[in-house]
Each structure stands twice: as structure tokens, then as C-alpha cells.
Amino acid sequence: MSNRPPAEPGRHPDTLAAHAGVCPDPVTGALSPALQLATTFEHAPDASTPLGYLYQRYDNPNQRQLEDVLAQLDGAARALFFATGMAAGAAVLQALPAGAAIVIAQDTYFGYRALIEGFLAPRGLRHTVVDASDPEAVRAALGGDVRLLWVETPSNPLLKIADIAALAELAHAAGAQLLVDGTFAPPGLQQPLALGADVVLHSSTKFLNGHGDAMGGVLAFARDDALAAACYDVRRLFGSSASPLSAWLTLRGLRTLPVRLQRHGDNAQALAEFLAAHPRVEAVHYPGLPDHPGHAVAARQMRGFGGVLSFEVAGGQAAALEIAGRLRVFTNATSLGSTESLVEHRASIEEPRVVSPRGLLRLSVGLEHAQDLIDDLAQALETTTP
Ligand code: PLP
Asked: Does the CB atom of residue 227 touch ligand 1 within 6 A?
């Protein structure tokens, strides 16, 4: 018997999230979904698969339960869950027709840039890098064999904002599809498909799971089209499926997504305002600040500005590392979107393809009390050698 959650058409996304996977088990009455680790499923006598499951790598109950909720939250015709965000992004690139070219935003996550520029370009993928906040540059790069425009908004780590609706129009006019990496702004904060995007990509390792204990990647498609089918085939044939445990943990994380996003955003706004007023801080990158270059677009296309920000200090790498080392409430670690706050000197981990300024620190703002976070930053900034 399928343990898919009942569809809840017309319900507010907060309600959908709170009910994610809640469907009393017909045998036990349990409200929390069962973790199904089986790798194989029984055939009917005629070799068909009456419940739709053949082999865990193709499809499995926990994955399907999660995908149903993800599709509802993103307003998608179909969602696919992968082992990591990298695997999800790679699937789109592998699914492109032979000879297709792509356009990517300058400020795309450095892992995807390493994949595209360092690995796929030498194997024949043609790509152009553009500033996605400059529509003329994007228009000029589109056309010909370009089949995909890939942008990230807000971007990592400079929190640049791309105008999704405007870019969707440009892409479609040139015969391309628009992919938006919405990892920094999960459903509830931003709905790229409703703004005209064709595919949304998330690293669910971050806010969607929200507890720093399960890797995962999501592709949510506006239409159940040839690209979606090809990405499903990539997952099945290249074996980039996630474990059922990752799906189970991610579904559990989704239940608290709306309330977590609210707190992440409130804390990040408070820290951004504190840092913007601090004499030792040279720049703060957070779209919730009115002087951020993407503030107006972000205010239009987002419902809150998210839980990640970055800032730059005078003194470059040495000063930034010293500050990171003095923080006590923030942990110096990579990743983002979990309950605890993290700080990271991005340039150090981007070697040899450094795209971040040397004096930049990225903060993943967690769910602690805002004053503890502000006090921690204050002591670190004030005790660091000027
Ligand atoms: N997209 C963004 C914006 C990211 O920050 C990351 C990872 O940090 C990824 C995608 C890749 O996701 P994963 O680490 O789950 O493979």
C-alpha cells in the first residue's frame, strides 16, 4: 500500500509543511511515516509492479513521499530528490541535448562553477559566464545553441539578487529554459516557478532539511516535460539517488520550515543592521538592507530575505580569519541553513578558484537568540587587531 501523504489542495504552504508526511499508517496508526529501507519490491505474477516500486535506486516510498510535498511547496508539476545538491545540478547538465550550450551567472555556487568550467567544459560543454543582474549582458549571451540559463538568487556568497521574472522572459524569448538555484531562499521565501522559471534547484542539505544531518538535492519542474524525464533517467542510470534515510530526515525537517525561516530571517536582519553600523565593517551583503543593490527586486520577489549574509572587513584575509577565530557562539564551519550559526572565510575553501573577496566572512544565521549573536560579533570585532 502506498504511504503517500494525502494531497491538500488550496491549503496554505505553512499548513502543508506542518503536515508533511503525516498520514496515519493503515496498519499501526502511527503518524510519523515509516522509514522503508528495502532495496527491492515484490513483482505481481505478471511481472508488473502494482505499487509502482521496483528497486530503491529507481523510486522508493520515502523519496516519493518527500517529492510529493516538495512539489506542492514549490508549486511544481514534478519534483525529484537526489543524493546531494551537486548531484541534482549535475543531472540537469547531463540531461541537456547533445550540442547544447549554457549561460551561467558569475556568482553561481563555486562547486557548480568547478563542475562546469573545470570538468565539463574540457569535455565539450560550451558555456558563457554573465552578470545576471545585467539584463543586456544576459540577452547578448543567449541565442544560438543556448538551451539553459542558470542563475542563483540570492547568490552564494555575495547575496546578489537576480530578477527571476525578467530573466525568464529573456530566456524564453531566446528558446532557453531558466533554472534558479533557490538554496538560499526555499519555498515560503521565494517561488521561482510562479515567476516564470522552468526549474528550481535546491541543496536540501541546507534550509529544507534544516538540521545539518542529511545531504540532499531537489529539482522542481514547472512542467513534467522532457527535461524532467531526462533528469529522472540520469538519477536512475547514473545512480545519484539519495538514501531513504535522507528523504525521511528531510521530510521531517520540512515540517518546521516556515517557522525556522521566520527566525533565521529575523536574526539575519538584526545582524545585518548591527554590522552595517559597525566602524570595522566595510561592506554588508544582505538583501534586507535598503541600500543593497538588489533590495527592490528582492522585496518584490521574496517574502523575507533569508538567513545568510556576508560582510567584509578591512585587513583582508588575516583580519577576517582572526575575527572568525574569536567567535564563540558561531562555529567556524562550512554549509548553512542549520539551527546553529556558522561563520566561514569563503576564499580559504574556494582555492584554487577563489571568487570571494579575501576580507569576506559568510554567516549562516541560526535560531539562537539574536542578542547572543550580536554580542559574539561585537566582542570578536572589537578585540581583533585593527
Ligand atoms: N547550491 C548552493 C547555493 C550551495 O551553497 C550548495 C552547497 O553549499 C550547493 C548548491 C550544493 O549542494 P550540496 O552541498 O548539497 O551538494
From this structure: no
- Phi and psi at residue 172, in whole multiples of 5°? -65, -40
Specify whether 286 is catalytic: no
Q: Which three cell numbers stand for residue 343?
A: 561563520
Predicted local distance difference test score (pLDDT) of residue 386? 65
**Residues 75 and 204 reside in one and the same domain:** yes
Grid cell for residue 22: 503525516
Q: What is the pLDDT of residue 2?
A: 38
160 is catalytic: no
Residues 142 and 280 in one domain: no
Q: How far is CA 269 from the centre of its chain?
A: 20
Sheet with 177-181: strands ordered across: 78-82, 217-221, 199-203, 177-181, 146-152, 101-105, 126-130
- Residue 217 and residue 231 in contact, taking contact as beta carbons nearer than 8 Å: no
Helix axes 257-276 and 370-383, enclosed angle (nearest 10): 30
Residue 155 covered by a domain? yes
Q: Retrieve residue 205's grid coordinates.
A: 542539505
> Does one domain contain both 86 and 148?
yes
206 is catalytic: yes
Ligand 1 in reach of 85 Cβ (< 6 A): yes
Question: CA–CA separation, 102 vs 112, rounded Å?
Answer: 13
130 and 162 both lie in a single domain? yes
**Is this structure's pTM higher than 0.85?**
yes
Domains in the chain, number? 2
**Sheet containing 308-313: order of strands:** 281-285, 308-313, 360-364, 342-344, 331-332
- Integer Cα distance of 203 and 289 in angstroms: 25
Residues 218 and 300 in one domain: no
| Per-10-residue mean pLDDT, the chain, length 386 | 52 93 91 96 96 97 97 98 98 97 95 96 97 95 98 96 98 98 98 98 98 98 98 98 98 98 98 98 98 98 98 96 98 98 95 88 98 98 80
Write out the DSSP string of 296-323.
HHHHHH-SS--SEEEEEETTHHHHHHHH
Q: How close is the Cα of 109 to the center of ligand 1, in Å? A: 7
Position in ligand 1 atom list of the atom nearest CA 216: 15
Range of the domain at 321: 257-382
CB atoms closer than 10 angstroms to residue 339:
14
φ, ψ at 150 (rounded to 5°):
-115, 115
What does the pLDDT read at residue 6?
52
